[in-house]
Amino acid sequence: MSREEEKSLFFSPPISFSHSSDKELLAHAVGAALYMPATRPNIADDVISGKHEGLVSVVLDLEDAIGDQQVELAEESLMQQLFLIASYMKIGTLAESDVPLLFIRIRSAVQLKRLLVRMADTLPLITGFVLPKFTEENGEDYLQLIAAYNGNRASGTPVLYGLPILESASIIYRESRLDSLLAIKAILDHFHDYVLNVRIGSTDFSSLFGLRRSSDRTIYELAPIRDCIADIINLFGRVEAGYVISGSVWEYFPKKERTMKPQLRVAPVEESFGSPGLELMSRSGKDAMEGLIREVMMDKENGIIGKTIIHPAHIKPVQALYAVTHEEYADAASIIAHNDGHHGVLKSQYANKMNEMKPHQNWAKRILLRSQVYGVLHEQQHFITLLHRNERAYV
Questions:
Q1: Do 49 and 179 reside in the same domain of the chain?
Q2: Residue 387 sits in the same domain as residue 288
Q3: Residue 261: count of CB within 10 angstroms of its CB
């Protein structure tokens, strides 16, 4: 954005951050994390060219995105791409501020141990390792390796984080869920300083029931998955738990020259933004986008921040949805400012709700933290405005 565009859209613009930023800020900043197979030959070129506008986080996948016979090839390709990125930065062709947060999704603790040695020179580029199928059986092995690296890393080198994915049968099956989640939480609590966020693997969960949500539905409409997500939030989403939870992968992407189904031309777009918002969605011709928007809205309502995505078209909708509205910001700021023992409840600045100083305090803190990363929009602006300025977000 130009400075003029930024001023016209944002009451308070997003702040800058890097993989060296404070952990709490960084955990919220992961946002839309784009998965790429580690075998992709042009990762470094995509980064240096800024091919994907708005890209903040990349997950280089050594697990499900590649075949079992491609592991060695994928590791070699990963080394080469990271070396190229480091080389571009060294000669000044690529600024550190232009490098997205880089994560690597591994297959096992054995592979993690090997990569920590092989990647010694390029590890400072990496924000963290995504730890799939994280359970009480393998979790400690993963995090002990990450803790050992951090204990011996050179001064000034960024912290390396672990991002566990909860996606195993023992978690989704009701009879073992609570014991499994409590055991996992005990492990994460022990290594809390090195756990950036907790990720939900709904695709693997769904597979165990032979389920798959449709493009116009949210993961919350699959009953077994919804119930499991509720329990994950109940344990890891508590304020005192101190974890950021990242939402389920969205696996549908736009298909050109297709008209949206008429029944999808309603909430949230038409109800919230009338004909301009509807025209934008209709011109985009992508029926999967409203499903994505619905799901991110539900994520936010449940305190989830972050989304695994598999297509560049998802970047802008997800990032835009995390922008804080002026009304949210005004409420949060008022709650924090008046929590001085002299007020119990106040009418909101928008005169449409009651703000209670104590019960809404934790919500307000989360809103203010999110406002730093994603900005605060002006009073009459909304996320559709951020997309409308560049309709290629849906191409």
A1: yes
A2: no
A3: 11
